[in-house]
Design a protein that fits this description.
two-stranded antiparallel ribbon, mainly beta, about 5% helix, 2 helices
Length: about 190
Amino acid sequence: LSGEKPNPQELLHLPYLLRMEPNGRVLTIKAPTLPRTARLIAQLSPQLDDYFPRLPASGRLSPGTTWTDTATRIENDPDGHRVSIRRISHYKAARDSMVDGKSAIVITQHTDVRITTSAPMQQQPFVTDLSLTGDEDGTALFGISDGRMLSRERSGELRGAVTYKGSEKPGVVNQSYRFHRTDVLELPPRER
């Protein structure tokens, strides 16, 4: 990538302003502006879209409850960078559990994912288009009495291609990403 080189240290501890709806949907109200080259590599705001599992609209969370949630994010910036992410998640409250003597519930999840991006290359006569599809499976542990996620683990795979357009014959580079993620949320020391 041409242009300014992002400094990852400058991105640490930048503030985000988020709003969480009762069903677990996170809305990014304010996020730091990343350098263009960093935006081409990774969009940080969408990483928060599915950080917390969505809860059923009914508000009832008991073993056997199933629900589906669709989350879509479409963004464009003045530089011509477009991003579209669609996640269709199928959840099930699988079973009761206990954590530190408090009631919790195990939630299982299967999500179908589709990501498309398009970005003009800076100082180059090319446009890069990325298209990925795949799925992920995982579990989350939700504390009933505290009303919060305690932990989450998920794995998945995305497959697709990057297409470089602008020359007589477009170039295509196949992509495949496998990932595994574990998140454990801890209370701040004053709340323990």
